[in-house]
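Researcher: Let's try something more involved. This one mixes different molecule types, so please make sure each is placed in the same coordinate frame as the others.
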Amino acid sequence: MATLTTRAPGQEAPLADHAKLVPLLITLAVGLVIWFIPPPAGVEVAAWHLLAIFVATIVGIILKPLPMGAVAMIGIMATALTKTLTIGESLSGFNNTTIWLIVTAFFISRGFIKTGLGERIAYYFMSVLGKRTLGLAYGLIGTDLVLAPAIPSNTARGGGIVYPVLLSLCKAYGSNPDDGTANRMGAFLVRSVFQGLVVTSAMFLTAMAANPLAVELAAGQGINISWGQWAIAASVPGLLSLIAIPYILYRLNPPEIKTTPEAAEMAKEKLQKMGAVKVPEWIMLAAFVLLIGLWIGSEALSINATTTALVGLGLLLLTGVLTWGDILNEKGAWDTLVWFAALVMMADFLNKLGLIPWFSEEMGAAVGGFAWVPAFLVLALVYFYSHYFFASCTAHVSAMYAPFLIVSVAAGTPPLLAALVLAFFSNLFAGTTHYGTGPGPVFFGSGFVSMTDWWKHGLLISVLNIVIWLVVGGLWWKILGLW
Amino acid sequence: MATLTTRAPGQEAPLADHAKLVPLLITLAVGLVIWFIPPPAGVEVAAWHLLAIFVATIVGIILKPLPMGAVAMIGIMATALTKTLTIGESLSGFNNTTIWLIVTAFFISRGFIKTGLGERIAYYFMSVLGKRTLGLAYGLIGTDLVLAPAIPSNTARGGGIVYPVLLSLCKAYGSNPDDGTANRMGAFLVRSVFQGLVVTSAMFLTAMAANPLAVELAAGQGINISWGQWAIAASVPGLLSLIAIPYILYRLNPPEIKTTPEAAEMAKEKLQKMGAVKVPEWIMLAAFVLLIGLWIGSEALSINATTTALVGLGLLLLTGVLTWGDILNEKGAWDTLVWFAALVMMADFLNKLGLIPWFSEEMGAAVGGFAWVPAFLVLALVYFYSHYFFASCTAHVSAMYAPFLIVSVAAGTPPLLAALVLAFFSNLFAGTTHYGTGPGPVFFGSGFVSMTDWWKHGLLISVLNIVIWLVVGGLWWKILGLW
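Model: All components are placed in one shared frame. Result:
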């Protein structure tokens, strides 16, 4: 007999997970309205219909009647069912090489957690930098930075590896969210590490899942950004931000506990307990070094970044550091595969069917008269601060990156400069709110920082980041000859 | 402190899952030897190198240094790393529409288990047919047949839905594997239902994961088989096999218990306990009927079979019968996506690079003089019984289907006839051993049937199936005008 606690088949709570009705209706309505508006002169009907499905998909990703992957899958279905595209075209996103770069990086990143190498790196940084609270913040951010090139889920990196270490530190120093001891240490560390995470995400093509989406969308405009180019361009402003942020937060709101000699000792003990670096960790480290080396030297060696990622994955599978079961279990990767394939496919065919070229031309005519510096500045700031309305970087990038890039370029902004700034901003804007990127709710959920405090500091750091990335970054990119 | 039972990070059992060394070395050796043999006149070097990687992948799938998916992923990596193909070409299998048909069917099939509809169908059949032991066998096979079109994992269908019901019947009638009561009921039911499963797998394009692989390989030879065509061609010989098998097994080795009035009662009670058909089951049923209808009418309505599958999936997601979490959790689907994409990509480029056309021409010259009927008969029988050497239908199809089809056609066999017979045999041959298809180990593992008995009956039923499918099937396909 089925009891109340065990569910017999056929006696499930029926359809608790169906699409939320209001968001679903809005999503469908937006799609239908656009579908039935007659396309403007110069736009094919097929392109217009695809635009309707594309916009509805984006609205669905933002309003979430269902999770992003399900919305994307239904978007793919819609392009095929309406015969806007053939089924082959509808599925064409699935063999995109950039998508497989990020999917493979997801697989590889599991190895840092599984082997314990990620944790070891965190304790290593703490043992060196951990004698002061400010040093602890730098140590945690350093861990994050080292892992960033090969962990594209900033939730996994921040929430899975760095956050547990942060929590154990707060516990050891008696800093709790609910008993008035938050400011001893926890509030400062949470603020610093979260804002650091936002910056490390901006520093590598493979450090955040939506970065390759921006690269793909830029490629659609004929602007190509390689893994190495991204990393070099982001290095100087990125490092500067990472150095400045904890220091400024420390000055503004110093933690009550400032010296932490025991933390360095604790880390050393932890490392001792972990013992010598194990064989799987060595292999993971070797694969990681190989990946970074080949990614940086990609052009010189003419090895595609995705091929490199597959080589790294193959190495981990052959040696048993990762099992095939680990791969099949890596839900974040499969999720990314689906939503990414849907968005790239639609963006690709909006280009091929002429809608995006048409839009670029119209924009060129409309904004051609402006001076590009103020024009781009306004565009970039609007792009940045509109993130208050988004609950995910991916949703924001998929909705706004391409049109803002097109308008920026139409206004005369050097294309690569525009593409890079908007791509970097696609990470940096996530520091503003507690819901704007995956790890936001994790860190905010710790309870160390109140919402007012979170938003106030978020706004402050956003200004700092914008200044650093536009001014210092702009100079650095000028030296690099990127514009 | 880490104890022996909890694994602290970095203290895992190191590399227990690395590639098995001897199979790995054989796989690599085969690939390297072919790679360095100079290609025969008329074959491009790139085609020859791809053949080396393809053969090594197949050998790896058979010898299993790692699970099939991992071998396939490394095969994809090898084509890109050696620059035999570009990375884009290496990943091109991932947008194949047939692959997404089967992947989507995997997702949909989860609904039968989750909603309890599969179990309900089984009890319904039992309540109608279950008054005699022979009727129970037909009832279980009937369940399997009804579910077959939309459950491409015969392991999920046989092992996940039918097998538990079979076991509960044996338990109720006191038939156990180890106390001399196996022949009361269990041995007969296991034999019948397993052999039935082999036949139902042959009856629909979407009833077994390797069926679409055969269709893709045939398409590479310009032979197109639609979902409806497959189902109609297989219907007559399939139903005849399903009727004959339990009856013959019953006559040869009758179960000791022959009448089972209580079973029908039990089933009715179970159904009563399940109550009225629930909303999710109705939706699942509606989606299922829609799928079958659209698949059969695919050509008339000009809706691609994959589009249909996506519509079914969309319906289940929107209504919450399936959640996005269910989809991400469906490891069999992601596994199939990877191995299928690797094999289809390689087969596709072996064609495009001219190796398969070259092979066809050579074969045409070599076997052109034979009469096709005896030639094809020999080829088909060799194809069938070579399954004693294979532990999976997929491995067998990927290794032998294309060359056997090419030689058959070269010998003058009507192409569609050859493609269908080999495709049907790709399922029927799995009845011979206890390891030849996924559900084999499940049913054999019940212990009701000894290995000698299993093989003896397997051989007998294989002869029965070959006669039915070649003679009755041949006539039926002649009437249909397929040859």
